[in-house]
Amino acid sequence: MTDKLWGGRFAEDITQDVLDYTLTVDVDERLVFADLWQSVAHVLMLGARKIVPAEAARDLLGALLRLRDQSENGRLRLRPELEDVHFNIEQQVIEDLGREVGGHLQTARSRNDQVSTDARMYLRRVQLDAVEANLELIGELLGFPEEELLAILPGYTHGQAAQPISVAFWKTAHASLLLRDVRRLRGAFDRTDESPLGACALAGTSFPLDRQVTARLLGFRAVLSHALDATSARDYLIESASAFAIGGNNLSRMAEEIVVWSGHEHSLVEVQDAYATGSSIMPQKKNPVVAELARGRAGRTAGTLVQLLTMAKGVTLGYSCDLQEDKPYLWHAIDAYLSTLRIVAGQTRGLRFDGARGEELCWDNFSTATELANHLTAGGLAFREAHHVSGALVSALIRRGATLRDTAASAEILAGLGHPVPEPVLARIFAPRTAVTGYTSPGGTSPRSVTAVRAELRAAVTAYGAWLEGTRRRLQRAHDAAFGAARDVADGADLGKALDRIAPDLPTLYGDLS
Ligand code: ARG
């Protein structure tokens, strides 16, 4: 027999290299808070259902509270030889109380329901942090100064100048898409927020568990009822990775625009000095390294999604060790995503757009040719006809080496084409500002439309902010209630009474899986 917690049937211990290959203590550091909270909830339930004797429950809670104090003081060290956080905590409880009492902790619980419970609890925090970081970035984007409503940028399709837009229009576009990332994170949160605890190894148990009370003590809004599903499921985690990957991709696309537009050829935007670095050899360089890395780090979030899908695809229902590969890369993806969101918010605050430069480019790059077609259409010509006339003008101007700035040349060419337009009219409709001001359709680039969209987006930010705050409060209340009851019981209070006292602080559960 070995002295491992599982050692009863073993004649010899695992070798050091097997231990090194299989342990998860390093990635489990992030789960310590969840494993302790979960263990407290589990013991309160075991005591309430008289699955363990009242005195044992009291002592177990005392030992768990001591471990929590140690953890908060930075003195809880996970020992690698104990493989993972679950065995570490159980072993330390046993070392504290002796096997006769400490050995009750793992009654009617398996590391299989335990690990998924921990991971869901950690992931909930991260999802909420990501919602908060997104809302902050969105706030930066929506906080543009009023003059950016008419600061001009060339809008691109196919990487070619298309139509003029405003800086505010560009910023609200990114805010709009990031808000969808927030929605996606919230959806992932809802499906993460279900308790697998009490599923045990895979098949449930003959002990009379109360899975609802542990779910509520952990702040969950639902019990993930089916034991085999609860221990096997990793879709909640893949879905989160997917939300992180999509979010990372979105940030990467914005970063690409900043990198390209801050180059000399565009000179449309400049990042604040603090977000750029210089070259070791070329004194003139100002490299937008934060934007470059925000673009590059999307490789980590995307890679993690592929890793998780690949890892999970062949795992039959019921826990297999493949599933412990769900954490290391996900942790990296989380770190990459959260740090990118936060630094991009800071970078956004310091971006300086050059609207005059944008306007100049739009005069030169024929961005307002559509406006001539629209003008002729308003005069009664079919749009397709007008498109041809306008295209013929562009072609003739290019042949002459001229642009839409040359209104005299344009007027002459148009007269020749049989569609005369007075020069002052051309000067007005070709002006990038006229186009931007005129695109008043809902969702368009006009100041009026952008202001309306900003109001909608701000209302959504407020609503998600309220949801975020309410959800964090719910988790915190359940946490404080569970540890408060544990403290009372450890100090000698009656367990049933302690649970009754905290009942109002625990969330109610959704009645069904809707
Ligand atoms: N450390 C494991 C993991 O990260 C915990 C579950 C292990 N369960 C087991 N039966 N080996 O997934």
Automatic annotation (TrEMBL):
Location within or outside the cell: Cytoplasm
GO cellular component, one term: cytosol
Enzyme class, spelled out: lyase
Top-level lineage group: Bacteria
Annotated SUPFAM superfamilies: L-aspartase-like
GO MF, one example: argininosuccinate lyase activity
Enzyme Commission (EC) number: 4.3.2.1
Entries under InterPro entries matching the protein: Arg_succ_lyase_C, Argininosuccinate_lyase, Fumarase/histidase_N, Fumarate_lyase_CS, Fumarate_lyase_fam, Fumarate_lyase_N, L-Aspartase-like
GO biological process: L-arginine biosynthetic process via ornithine
Catalytic activity: 2-(N(omega)-L-arginino)succinate = fumarate + L-arginine
Family: Belongs to the lyase 1 family. Argininosuccinate lyase subfamily.
Listed name of the protein: Argininosuccinate lyase
Organism whose genome encodes this protein: Nonomuraea solani
Gene name, Swiss-Prot/TrEMBL: argH
